[in-house]
Amino acid sequence: MTAVEVAYTEDGPADAPVVVLSNSLGATRGMWDPQVPALAERYRVVTYDTRGHGDSPTPAGPWTLDDLVDDVVALLDRLGAPRAHVAGISLGGMTAMRLAARAPARVDRIAVLCSSAKADPQGFRDRAAAARSGGTAPLAAPVVSRWLTPEYAASHPSLVARLEAMIASSDDEGYAACCEVVADMDLREDLGRITAPTLVVSGAEDPSLPPEHQQVIASGIVGSEFLSLSPAAHLANLERTLEVTGALLAHFDGAGR
C-alpha cells in the first residue's frame, strides 16, 4: 500500500535535530501540546496525525502497522530528515518500535510510552466493530476513562471534555482500521532487533495496557531504560506532564553527549 501524506505541525529551530511525536489511537497530534514547547527549545519538533486520525487522510483499508511506519518514513523524507528521534504513545509507540526494527538507519533514539508489543486482539476487534456500527461518539467516555486516573479526571473536567470530543470527532473507519492494526500487531520478535537507545515509560495505573506490557518491551530491547510513573493511566504525558517532558528531554539529549 502507498504511504499517505499525513498532516503535521512543526515547531522549533529548522536546523535542530528532528523529534517526531506519534499519537495514540483515537487522539490527534494535539495530545502532545504539553510537551512541544519545552522540546521545541532545542529540537525541530514534528507532531503528526496518524492516518485515519485528525486532519490526515483515511485511505481504503485494511492497514497494517507497516503502513503506518511507511507514512512516517515518507514524512521524514518530506522533511528532508535522514534520521529522527521518535516518541510514541500506545499505537504511536508501536509505530516507533516497528520503525526502529525495520529501518534502523532512520531513527536515532526512541521513546515508547504506555504501549505494547502484543495487545489483546479480541478487545480491539470488538472496538473496531463498535466504531463501525455506532460511530466513535459512544466510545468517547469509556475510552477517556482509561486515559486518565479517576482522581485526575475528576479534577480536570475541561481536559476530559476535550479528550472526549477528540475521540467523538474521530473518523469512524479510520479509528476502526487502526483498532485492527493493533489487533493484528505482534512486535515480540522485533524487540531484539531494536538497536536504537530506548526509553520505555509505563503508567502504573494504566488499565488499557498495564505495566506488564511495558515490562515485556523493556526486557526485550537490550539496554533500554524503564520509567514507571504513578499515579498515571494511559496518557501519562497529560497526567504527568513535567516528568514525561523531562524524561524525553534527558533521553534525546543523551544523543548529544
Write a concise keyword list for the protein shown above.
257 residues, alpha/beta, Rossmann fold, 11 helices, 7 strands, globular
Quaternary assembly? single chain
Order of helices and strands: EEHEHEHEHHHHHEHEHH
CATH names the topology as: Rossmann fold
Poorly predicted runs of 5 or more residues: none
Radius of gyration: 17 Å
Helix fraction, binned, reads 40-55%
Strand order within the widest beta sheet: 1-3-2-4-5-6-7
Give the CATH H-level superfamily.
Alpha/Beta hydrolase fold, catalytic domain
Main sheet characteristics: 7 strands, mixed
**What is the β-strand count?**
7
Shape: globular
Top CATH class = Alpha Beta
Q: What structural class should be given to the helix and strand makeup?
A: alpha/beta
The tally of domains stands at: 1
What is the CATH architecture descriptor?
A: 3-Layer(aba) Sandwich
Work out the strand percent. Answer: 5-15%
The separation of the N and C termini measures 39 Å
Alpha plus pi helix count = 11
Q: What average pLDDT do the residues reach?
A: 97
